[in-house]
């Protein structure tokens, strides 16, 4: 029996680090990616910080919509920062390893911030419903304390979702191989390395992600359906659609890519295709959000001009 235990222990060597295979093995391609993603990350940081500073600096942008938009920019900034600095560093390195604890921490933060953003976008849909369908009660319903509680609930919901995903992952036995087919640690590529049957774990993870996605989607669907049903005139519907276009664009991109990544079994993953999707939801969407919201909102554009003009006059 002792010999059997010793053999079992040898066959289940604990993995202490993972190797991130990254986006490419070609040095020239890696350097090209480094320049591209460095510029993208700088655009994400500057774009989202500009929105935050603009909303904080302009006394006219005090409604719940702009408070939620400010929080969305902060979440996008955090979301991109979970993966981008590490990716940029690895693109200049020869051996891209990450410790087991570091991998689990990155996985936890990615799902923590990502789920918080999903919940926040749902709250923003509710905000648009109140603004369009109950404009006379908007200020009393979407008061500052209420908004703060809603944002706090988004973060708590993100934490609960992420802790479930992380616990399910961290309890799996990892005994090799330890090469992750991605440039960051995420649930699908990591659990494929477990040296056990992951069917039940995968089912629990998909159910967890599916319930959250379904709940958020239903709230979004009900909000926009009620908006369109409530507004009778064609002119009113066009105006409502114009107001919500930015939000709908972001929701479609984010929910589409996340559903593609997390609501299917790991056996159906294809490296090249899924790498493109990963880049899209970790880099492209956080970079597009400031452009979408600033270019589609006249008040934000006016406030941006005022802030930039002030900075120019000071210099």
Automatic annotation (TrEMBL):
<feature type="domain" description="G-protein coupled receptors family 1 profile">
    <location>
        <begin position="47"/>
        <end position="293"/>
    </location>
</feature>
<comment type="similarity">
    <text>Belongs to the G-protein coupled receptor 1 family.</text>
</comment>
<dbReference type="InterPro" id="IPR050427">
    <property type="entry name" value="Olfactory_Receptors"/>
</dbReference>
<keyword id="KW-0716">Sensory transduction</keyword>
<dbReference type="InterPro" id="IPR000276">
    <property type="entry name" value="GPCR_Rhodpsn"/>
</dbReference>
<dbReference type="InterPro" id="IPR000725">
    <property type="entry name" value="Olfact_rcpt"/>
</dbReference>
<feature type="transmembrane region" description="Helical">
    <location>
        <begin position="104"/>
        <end position="126"/>
    </location>
</feature>
<dbReference type="GO" id="GO:0004930">
    <property type="term" value="F:G protein-coupled receptor activity"/>
</dbReference>
<keyword id="KW-0472">Membrane</keyword>
<feature type="transmembrane region" description="Helical">
    <location>
        <begin position="243"/>
        <end position="263"/>
    </location>
</feature>
<feature type="transmembrane region" description="Helical">
    <location>
        <begin position="211"/>
        <end position="231"/>
    </location>
</feature>
<dbReference type="GO" id="GO:0005886">
    <property type="term" value="C:plasma membrane"/>
</dbReference>
<feature type="transmembrane region" description="Helical">
    <location>
        <begin position="147"/>
        <end position="168"/>
    </location>
</feature>
<dbReference type="InterPro" id="IPR017452">
    <property type="entry name" value="GPCR_Rhodpsn_7TM"/>
</dbReference>
<keyword id="KW-0675">Receptor</keyword>
<feature type="transmembrane region" description="Helical">
    <location>
        <begin position="31"/>
        <end position="53"/>
    </location>
</feature>
<dbReference type="Pfam" id="PF13853">
    <property type="entry name" value="7tm_4"/>
</dbReference>
<feature type="transmembrane region" description="Helical">
    <location>
        <begin position="275"/>
        <end position="295"/>
    </location>
</feature>
<dbReference type="GO" id="GO:0004984">
    <property type="term" value="F:olfactory receptor activity"/>
</dbReference>
<keyword id="KW-0812">Transmembrane</keyword>
<keyword id="KW-0297">G-protein coupled receptor</keyword>
<keyword id="KW-0807">Transducer</keyword>
<keyword id="KW-1133">Transmembrane helix</keyword>
<keyword id="KW-0552">Olfaction</keyword>
<protein>
    <recommendedName>
        <fullName>Olfactory receptor</fullName>
    </recommendedName>
</protein>
<keyword id="KW-1003">Cell membrane</keyword>
<feature type="transmembrane region" description="Helical">
    <location>
        <begin position="65"/>
        <end position="84"/>
    </location>
</feature>
